[in-house]
Give the backbone structure.
Amino acid sequence: MPEGVHSWAQSDRLSIALNFVDNYSFLEPRTHSLMSNKGEVGVEFPLVQYLAAGLKRTIPTLGISSLYRWITGLFLAFGLAWFVASFRLHRSILLPVYILCLSPLAFFYQFNFLPDAAALGLLLTSLGFLNKYITAHTWMRGLLSVLFAGLATLVKTSCGIYFISITSVFFIDLIFFSGRRIRSLVPVIAAIGLGSLIYWYDLVHFFERNEQLWSVVFLSKPLPVKSWEEVVAIWKNTRTWRLDYLSFVQYTLGAIVLTTIVIRRIKLPSILRNHTFRTLIASAIGAIIYALLIGMQFSNHDYYFLCTFYPIFIWGVLYGLSAISSASELNIEVFKTVLYTLAIIHLAVSLNIAHDRRSEHYSVRDRVILNETTWLQGSAEFLKASGVPKEAEIFVLCEFAPNTSLIYMDRKGKVFNHEEMSRSRSHIDYWQERIRPDYFVIRNKWLDHIPEKQPHLEEASELVAANNEFSIFKFNSR
């Protein structure tokens, strides 16, 4: 189950997968939160959720949470391995290079419920095929590069930065290089078709569905920067995550690679002077524009880094290492020893950060990120033992995340945060009339909020069961 940093967002995505098991309609995803009709929402292309639910439906004994994690992990593992392998690196250094390319953030999200790690895997697969296309211009490699980049963009919109950059390679070949026109025509046609699908799904279906359903679970609108002060605030907040984005070892590696190339005047691969260089620059500009378009959301959600600036770092480091390892004067044994030493230190640091990020109170520089889920452990079994049917709809009071408590409790309903609990009685009455819940659940530490803020709930219900963490009440009218 979701835990640690951004467990809120993780829960929203896992809820989609859990609901696909019963309602296997790709274009009608649902969550446990009934804030919209039947919990229907607009969400980014739910590829991983759909695959996990499909496997669960096929083999019911498998756990959907484990399936979800493994699909995400395999996507990223394969994509990074394929991308690393597309460079001319000595075989003896492939393992440490692979480890050094995985940031603490990637370690944490690789076996997680957010779409970013899976999208990153698809994107890196695309970039691997692009490398192969640039070195040997075959239409199949170009086509696969476009297809994987398009699929990555559907899964995570920010990958569109690279989809556009990659597509430009084939348009340039089609227009300016007569000898490559036939081979670049197929990728261009595929890019136009995929671009149309991305436009329809992300900018029409996703947006319109949330508008029609009045759903705010998944962000579908940009929140662009409007002032220089906001730019400064974004930069300041982003710096909070700098050692989660990349470990100090990775920053050191980048500096070593750059310094070695400059001091020893190592010649970079010739392809860096044409397609690859232009693609890297276009992607970097696109990442900056994207960050400005989504504004403070970028700095508040560390995972946005994975499919924007992170691939540029990997790309640059791999090209540098490729240039260094190809140098005739290189002592490969010394080079290998340095890389393995850095990889071991980096692995230890990254795994430690990834472990800490799973805690309920994660301290990162000057912030403490709260993700309290321990109280929910075993809650579904406790509700069942207390006589609460699985089909019963419930309210969860004084919580923030719209789906986290509901998926742990394996029930559908509505979560009321502290601000909602402070509103007038009519707000609760509206949702009670709309959802007609059978029960409500509240953590014991917030029990005094009922007589203080919504006393009518105390009068209209009776205590059914309680444990050390929370209490269950049944509405008298039901």
In short: The chain has two domains: 7-364, 374-475. The longest strand covers residues 461-466. Residues 181-213 form the longest helix (33 residues). The chain is about 60% helix and 5% strand.
